Amino acid sequence: MVWPYWTALCVYLVCERESGAPSPSPGSLRRIVVVFSAAYLFLLQEMSAVSNFTACRRFQNGFREELPFITNKFLTNNISSPFHKVSLVHSKRMFKGSNIRMTLVDERLSSRKVVVPSEILAYELVQGAKVRWSYIMEGSLPEPPTAILLHGILGSRKNWGSFARRLAQEFPKWQFLLVDLRCHGDSASLKKRGTHTVASAALDVLKLLGQLRLTPRVVVGHSFGGKVALSMVEQVAKPLARPVRVWVLDATPGEVRAGADGDDHPAELISFLSKLPKEVSSKRDIVEALIQEGFSKDVAQWVVTNLRQINPAGSSPSPLSWVFDLKGIAEMYQSYEETNLWKIVEDVPRGVHINFLKAERSLHRWALEDIRRIHVAEEQAVEEGGGVEMHVLEDAGHWVHADNPDGLFKILSFSFQGF
Predict the structure, then answer these.
(1) CA-CA distance, 272 to 112, in Å (whole number)?
(2) CATH of 72-258+333-416, one of 3.40.50.300, 3.30.70.3270, 3.30.70.270, 3.40.50.1820
(3) pLDDT tens digits for range 113-156
(4) Where is the AB hydrolase-1 domain (predicted)?
(5) pTM of structure
(6) Higher pLDDT residue, 209 or 362?
């Protein structure tokens, strides 16, 4: 694709010479080359939008800008501070001279869903109609507002898929980052060192944001993901360059209280799954086994979404295997029960607004003391420039985005308005 441009350049110079014009000076020649190179890069940009990432490359890490909340810990890892920007990884090849940024564009050129390999976490971007990926020269363009959606224990980014697409349709200037947390979904194959905790899961997400050079405006976490969202704020722990809204869906900052009998307790579910074989013949058998053990049909059907064919291309039916790392998940859930993040709620960094959403039918997960402390934090945060707020989602159990998606959509919507 390069040769037509250099051919055109040569023809232009020959025509200039034949017409009797003086030979261009070295400076003029350099300017001509720059013009033709810019035209070539512009065409690449347009082609990349059409081909949807057929030419993606890896960009260098370590990009750094002066912002007040960059910490030494992140700089030593070549990762900028959370809620900031560094470079994007696509493959093993390095490519210099341009960046991948998100830009607002005409609806006809939109790319609604983007999935790009990452060495940190598996993820996808669900994008509104006015957002797409594009190659551009180094420069400053407005970054579309980004929201992150975090799943709960034993879940995956797919849990948020339908809801994210609905948000993207209603708010076309936004993009929604869905991730598989460590030990879950496609991230289970990305081996992690150290212990599997709420804090380490939060750090993974912060590093991914750095890699993608995204600055989120909204962070939404369900259950375990809610504590991950709070831990992200705790690890930043400084005033942010722009306001960030954090939504903690049906999770408290402190002690996790056990449910009543028949409440599909995650610890019991993890324990039962650990006794099952790693390979199974059908999802139906697992659903029946879970129901017989006392788990609800809804939870049983949800759990088996983590089963995948071992050899999907084979001619005969392939056995199924679990995509998650159950041992790692057990560690993560234990950390979830023990992690106490009340401190960040009662001393919210300036620029952060924390919203707690309590599911009406999840009474066992909330004590009166939890609600009282949140209300006290609300009053204190107003005085200190932060924000804490409590919401109740009617007609919903713990699975808020499945039980009452319309009600949840209505409550969350105001976070995406005004852009």
Answers:
(1) 38
(2) 3.40.50.1820
(3) 655 567 899 999 999 988 865 433 344 557 789 999 999 999 99
(4) 148-409
(5) 0.72
(6) 209
